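In the current project phase, the collection of sequences with tokenised folds has grown. A sample record is quoted in full directly below:
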Amino acid sequence: MNKKDIELLSPAGNLEKLKIAFAYGADAVYGGVSHFSLRIRAGKEFTFESFKEGIDYAHARDKKVYATINGFPFNSQIELLKKHIIKMAELEPDAFIVAAPGVVRLCREIAPQIPIHLSTQANVLNYLDAQVFWDMGVRRIIAAREISLKDVKEIKKHLPDMEIEIFVHGSMCFAYSGRCLVSAVQMGRVPNRGSCANDCRFEYTLYAANEDHSTLFRLEEEPGVGTYIFNSKDMNLASHMQEILDSGAVDSVKIEGRTKSPYYAAVTAHAYREAIDDYFDNKFDANKYQKELYTTKNRGFTDAYLIHRPFDKNDTQNHEYALSKGSYEVSGLVAEDEEHFYCKYKTYPGDEIEIFAPIGAQIEECDNEIGKIYKKDDDKFYIVFNKILTDTNKELESVHSGNTNKIQLPSKLPYLTMLRIENEEETVNN
């Protein structure tokens, strides 16, 4: 296996995140419009026009875009689904991601020129199921999140021409490969049709009942244990990338998170790009990638099931909080003109702000009236503003996220570079 044989696949919740994922190292992205996708909220960020713009943007850079049509339709939706497949095929994505066998067949009939990738929702864990989908025309399976690396290798042994994609990072569902109905029961929002309400992330109070005499009493938890009883930690396999790549059985490593922030899209793509490149350059350093990944919002991390079976351990659930803020906050995003940034948090004169730049970015040191850019701490770059000036030269005492003015930089920085500062708060329950 060489570097070109392994694909880094990132989420693209909207056009900006698509561009960020590519800038920070992704080879391909996945996303779609809201219809028949399992991420309706993310899909609404894309129109057919902007999704086509994203596909053209990717193809101009020799990158790929996979379109999600991975919902589970009802009979009443079949005719609408047929029209949707026709319209999505016209955008010329590099593949459709599909979950339901009937939709696989429909896509093959309507748009045979578009390759089919089988969604993780199809729960493929073995070569028998993989063979069935191969016979139907599927050329890549996105294996169930519960699969082991041993089973991935076994599938590849039986079906060497079948591409295998695995999740390596992002949110985990307490239900089997996301096939959940909790939010449908409680909120009327059906996860398998793209409108999950994330009920598994809520804090619950536990009660016990006696059916003989209708006694109901609240169960008291130990202090600090909490009641986030369904709340899985997030998958993080960066430390296992050597084993994954050594296997020779994995064609694509996938990051979850179309509804996550642009910063998440940047950091995860950057960290896994470095992990892959460092593997092939014989300088793999798991601690370096983990340090970056912990700067993102997370629920705590687990290595899930790829290396260890679920019954081998007891550390996959986070009972204490719903979501950690991560150790860094994005204070700014560099505009396309590369001379200004948009404030995303808050910026004050005199603050030392770290520069987090796209893969391969060239940064020049400078020191002038507006501020200075300099290098320290193992070649990291920082920026300090002497004054906050808008693009119309209006001076501000500070700038906060509600301000939509472009703010001048002391020197050019690459488009989509992020300015980040350490968080003042550690966790938030939401």
In short: Residues 365 and 374 are 5 Å apart (CA to CA). The longest strand covers residues 163-170. The two ends are 42 Å apart (CA to CA).
